[in-house]
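Table S2 (text version). Query chain:
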Amino acid sequence: MGADKFSIRGVAANLELAERFTIAVESWDVASNVFAIVSYGDHTGVGEVCPDARWGDSADSVLKEIAAVDLNGLASPFDLEGLSHLMPATAARCAVDIAMHDLAAKIASVSVAEMLGLGGRSIPETSVTVPIADLDVMVARARKLAAYPAMKLKVGFDGDVDAVRAIREVYDGRIRIDANEGWSADQAIERLDALAELDIELCEQPVPKGDYDGWSRVKERSSIPIFADEDAGTAEDVAKLAGRADGVNLKLRKAGGIRELVKGTVAARALGMGVMIGCDLESGIAATAGASAASLCDFVDLDGPLLLATDPYPGVRYDGARLSLPDAPGLGIEKAPE
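Corresponding structure-token output:
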């Protein structure tokens, strides 16, 4: 193994969505994702990220970062911590980090979950998402998803309280809402108070990113637990939210990969915060990576592949809201991007 060298390349691909996906600040018809392919000797690992323009990322910028990294600065394929010294916690590092975990686990002939010490642990059921749309469309989607035990409703728009109320009339499962920075602190306090009677499990990102005073004000006034999303990327970000948020939604893209996401969960636990693992508009590659660490979390929102017209790289299996990992080394992805 010592004589082998790393090679890496990036591949961009557009993944068509089953329907338009809209949140408080943006809409998508396709997901423009980037895949990292890392080889070492006879083994190859794959990773994925869905770049987010709000974080200054694009498919082109991620591809450039991947092309610039020299993985031969790592001690071995198992030097997963070393990647953080070669790349900052960016979307590009997320794709490479996932590929490195896939590669190392394949060399060790174990799954990524087993390599993380999480093999065989139960994964919480995933929620499914209702994006922003006309009220009748949102209610119709909620009816269609009524068999799922937990639903995430995108809010942060005029009339969102009425939309949640209408969906609660047709859905009796657990409702989580996500404002995606769509409210001011004053709006969040007012609307969460109006929603309190509807048995809302939690609310994500009720204030703009970086508004720490707003976080404190909303937490003090809201009976609904508030979880940070856009404000929670790395373990350092989690620490800044101590006492301001009830929990965090951690995502591989924001953390820069699996390694930092695990650190973020440890930080949140030490600070007495709840933990959700979230996703972007992604295929089975990124979703399987997330599912491999999901048993560390209280809440799971890994429905990315379900939002695609077709998942070109299936991995984690969905039986309704129940997730099961492939019984294979690495991520268990049979078809890799070319």
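Notes on Table S2: The radius of gyration is 19 Å. The chain has two domains: 6-109, 128-324.
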